[in-house]
Design a protein that fits this description.
There is one protein chain. By secondary structure, the chain is mostly helical. It has one domain. It contains 20 helices and no strands. α3 packs across α11 and α3 packs parallel to α16. The longest helix is centred in the last third of the chain and has 29 residues. It is globular, with a radius of gyration of 22 Å.
């Protein structure tokens, strides 16, 4: 009987029950919630589902103790996380993003850049706020870039400046990207009048093939002269776009916007999720970072709308300020949100094409700001 009891005790110590902590249960519930949002609500499922399952794995009791976690040197999860830690995956995602992005709307309406620049205000306000709350300059910059609503840019900058908070910052960034349809509409409605929401914008002009080919080359040179630190992200973005628009490398463009970006998206999401072990993740600083990330995103949305309203004071052809919310980099979800909000007030008013202009400009603007921060602080 004693032998049987000893064997049973030994067996229990080989199971997860021996390492269970209530914080593991909390993180598992968070993971299941994210899965629900991805599957049932269709909130950014391509990134939220890999993150949530990574969270589930990371919080199984015994992962740390048995040296299988993402922080365990030489483990499979640690090797997969290498691409996040060293900033390898984000540029590859930007290559695929460039190969699937149509800059025609931005080329046809270049003043949309101003809306996108205005929509980055959340980055700067959060940078100041995070620093005042006791985070270092490097940590504050990494937290602030969450306001761009651009996961790859956030990961790339944080991996260089503050890798010790990378898991929390990356999870925060992708969480708020997924929650764009929930967070943005109330802000947009609060800051616009019924009359402004009904503004109709004229159809955009047709953009020539030559313009489409020249744009990524000229834009890359112009942006990197301002922000050399963003050369890798911007270079991959515009290189991918040139593959698409040149017309002579369709095979490469097709691979970049399908297989390559899909593989990297799975690896990024899953790897980020595996860093969220409860004992290391559920700390006061993590909660503050999540709060600051939400604040950054909301301020960016609001500043984009306000920028569009200010521009209307000087423009003969008015901008529907709803598209100001699309100035954040969550592409194309923020543009779709603008379309949906606009059609709640006028079903025949199609804002999607107009919203895509500041939306793609926001991708570029956030990468430029990250490049500036990297150049000044790294």
């Amino acid at each position: 009987m004693q032998v049987l009891l000893n064997d049973l005790t030994s067996f229990i110590y080989t199971t997860g029950f021996a390492y269970f902590h209530y914080k593991n249960l909390l993180m598992i519930l968070f993971a299941l919630t994210f899965m629900y949002l991805a599957v049932k609500k269709n909130y950014e499922p391509l990134i939220l589902l890999p993150i949530s399952f990574g969270m589930l794995i990371a919080n199984m009791p015994g992962m740390n103790e048995l040296m299988q976690s993402a922080s365990s040197e030489g483990s499979v999860l640690n090797i997969l996380y290498y691409g996040v830690r060293k900033g390898i995956y984000p540029p590859l995602i930007f290559l695929g993003l460039g190969a699937m992005t149509d800059f025609s709307n931005l080329i046809a309406n270049p003043k949309s850049v101003l809306v996108a620049v205005g929509a980055q205000m959340g980055i700067f306000t959060t940078f100041i706020g995070a620093n005042l709350l006791g985070f270092s300059i490097l940590e504050a910059a990494s937290i602030a870039i969450i306001g761009s609503a651009d996961g790859p840019t956030t990961i790339y900058l944080t991996s260089k400046l503050a890798p010790h908070i990378l898991g929390t910052v990356a999870l925060s960034a992708y969480s708020y990207m997924a929650l764009v349809p929930i967070l943005q509409p109330p802000v947009i409605k609060l800051l616009t009048t019924p009359k402004e929401r009904l503004i109709r914008m004229k159809p955009q002009r047709l953009v020539s093939k030559r313009e489409k080919i020249l744009f990524p080359i000229i834009a890359f040179i112009s942006c990197v002269v301002i922000a050399p630190g963003g050369a890798v992200l911007l270079g991959m973005l515009f290189f991918g776009n040139l593959l698409k628009e040149s017309g002579v490398t369709e095979r490469l463009a097709q691979t970049a916007r399908t297989s390559l970006i899909d593989i990297c998206t799975v690896l990024v999401g899953f790897s980020v999720g595996t860093t969220t072990n409860a004992l290391a993740f559920l700390r006061k600083d993590s909660i503050i970072i999540f709060f600051l990330g939400m604040t950054a995103f909301i301020v960016s949305t609001a500043s984009g709308v306000i920028t569009a309203k200010i521009m209307n004071l000087f423009l003969k052809e008015k901008i529907n300020p709803i598209i100001g919310g699309a100035g954040v980099s969550a592409n194309p979800m923020a543009a779709r949100v603008a379309q949906n909000v606009g059609q709640q007030y006028d079903k025949s008013n199609y804002l999607l094409m107009h919203a895509l202009a500041p939306n793609v400009a926001g991708v570029v603007a956030s990468a430029v700001i990250a490049g500036v921060m990297l150049g000044m602080l790294y």
